[in-house]
Amino acid sequence: MNEYVTLAHGSGGKMTHMLIKDIFYRYFRNDLLLAGGDSAVFEADKGLMAFTTDSYVISPIFFKGGNIGKIAVCGTVNDLAVSGAKPKYLSCGFIIEEGFPIRDLETIARSMAETAAEAGVCLVTGDTKVVQKGCADRIFINTAGVGVVPDYVTLSANRIKSGDAVILSGTMGDHGTAILLEREGLKVKSSIASDCAPLAGMIESVMSEYADAVHIMRDPTRGGVATALNELIDGTGLCIELKEKFLPVREEVKGVCELLGMDPLYMANEGKVIIIADGACAGEIVDKIKKSPYGREATIIGVVTENYSGRVLLNTIVGGNRVIDVLTGDQLPRIC
Amino acid sequence: MNEYVTLAHGSGGKMTHMLIKDIFYRYFRNDLLLAGGDSAVFEADKGLMAFTTDSYVISPIFFKGGNIGKIAVCGTVNDLAVSGAKPKYLSCGFIIEEGFPIRDLETIARSMAETAAEAGVCLVTGDTKVVQKGCADRIFINTAGVGVVPDYVTLSANRIKSGDAVILSGTMGDHGTAILLEREGLKVKSSIASDCAPLAGMIESVMSEYADAVHIMRDPTRGGVATALNELIDGTGLCIELKEKFLPVREEVKGVCELLGMDPLYMANEGKVIIIADGACAGEIVDKIKKSPYGREATIIGVVTENYSGRVLLNTIVGGNRVIDVLTGDQLPRIC
């Protein structure tokens, strides 16, 4: 087999077939994919389904805690999970720069397969395009996902009400900070790794027990917790008040962010979920989340109030209030 | 609004929201998309569903007969349709190079919306990433699609049998030749346009009447009719024999291909379908296809025989037989 991806691998001919068989069939192996049709065909039950997509252009493609393949599976799995869906099937579309090492493609595919297995999803259909050297930056991956929404799910921003608790499943900014460190080649001796993880299992464990108490969920990726909370509260006429002292941030992340003038509230996460839930059940939900390996540092970070309409406020440690707006400008490009 | 796409448009923050509202919501407007959740949630019936994806990296992005947006909708719609599915929902993921003109993005989005409307599908979920200047070639689009497979569909390569007719819905190589002419800037005075078209309606009209007689379908895109036929016949133990004199090729396409040493059998099509059907019904199916604006030149191009196992043969005009293999090497990169 070749050592590098060539334009012929994207031709749709013999070389494309070889690449598909040698790499994608080998790692993604499942009946729907191996049927090899123009589409994957599966049996659906009557009910609600969720459908989502994301493209991944992260740089660098390999980083502490993951790689572009792992994040491409996690991101789409998590988008389905926060919609209350049980993720089932993923598609993946590769856009590869001519000259990309086949060995790296294999590492990425293996990682996708492992993450998909953990999340309980199958990679059932795909596509590979190759562009000339200089026409793409190494590799971009799109995944789309289909999931099944159980009957008991009633998530809606309309269900947010005053007195709800705002739960975050763990520390903020790990992913963004890890990428920043890798990219800038900062010589900081650090153990900061991306939090990149598939949250479907953890979220399902909460939803199967507390579906009624959970009003809405979101994964705080690009734009961070600040942007996600603004999106959730926008148009509800309510206010989210965060307690600065409860915001979970690793000391190392805090240090790097201070050094570089970044705010962890706006840093991307790839393995965290925000849950807005009935205040009365919030403690139990946090305990439930803590049982997952990805939720050990879950905590209540704030409450929903009627104090301001559509705003996110930070009650600071020194006793003031600061309006937390959505991200403006571009804090960090190509973070996912 | 800005005139050009900036990195901030891909940040997930304020500028991303503006781009989504000003362009994508405006043109793609439908309830599922406007719900604005992490996933689009829709009601499914019990039964078979089809799921597929393709990324589009075509160069140039605007060409006679279409643009990258139109082809991104047609390609995925057609992949669903040839699987026997009625296309329903599309996702779209944009990867945009910093500095891309917003006006061009708008033209592309409008074109996607028009084509989706014609095909009866909704663009329900999407994603936008922006990469630095020089890290992508203008714009890449991924679409994934979900469709519903009616009960009466029984497509399978296992159903191909000796005596079946091979139907092609129109002329070969229009798309590939049109792109070649644009790209090479050849000063050929030509009316050749891409055949890029959504075939869902045409295929549904055939399937609703001849579901049992149609054994399998495929759209001959990258790699052309030759590669698609090889994929279909591979592993069946049967042979496809094409009649050279029946192969529909526009005179102009023939001329350009001869000039440049290309073979129309391997040139990409974006608005054609190959149908392998019971020989007894093939004439009626051709008549049915001809009623569609995209199938006026439909014709039977060959038959399935037992003469050679897993081979595609061309019975040439001069009376010989030539083996038609899958595409080797890369006839034309970035054709879709």
Largest interface: A-B, 79 and 80 residues
Terminal Cα separation of chain A, in Å?
30 Å
- Specify the structural class of chain A: alpha+beta
- Largest beta sheet: strand ordering of chain A: 9-11-8-12-10-13-14
Shape category of chain A: globular
- Give Rg of chain A in angstroms: 21 Å
Our count of helices of chain A gives 9
What are the segments of chain A in which pLDDT stays under 50 over at least 5 consecutive residues?
A: none
Number of strands of chain A: 14
**How confident is the prediction overall: mean pLDDT of chain A?**
95
- Please estimate the helix content of chain A: 25-40%
The multimeric state of the shown protein is: homodimer
- How would you sum up the major sheet of chain A? 7 strands, mixed
Order of helices and strands of chain A: HHEEEEHEHEEEHHEHEHEHEEE
What fraction of the residues of chain A are assigned to beta strands by DSSP? 25-35%
Strand and helix map with partners:
The structure is a homodimer of 336-residue chains.
Chain A: H1 14-28, H2 31-34, E1 40-44, E2 47-56, E3 62-63, E4 66-67, H3 68-82, E5 86-97, H4 102-119, E6 122-131, E7 139-149, E8 165-168, H5 174-184, H6 200-210, E9 214-218, H7 224-233, E10 239-243, H8 251-260, E11 274-277, H9 282-290, E12 299-305, E13 311-315, E14 321-323
Helix pairs in contact in A: 1-4, 3-4
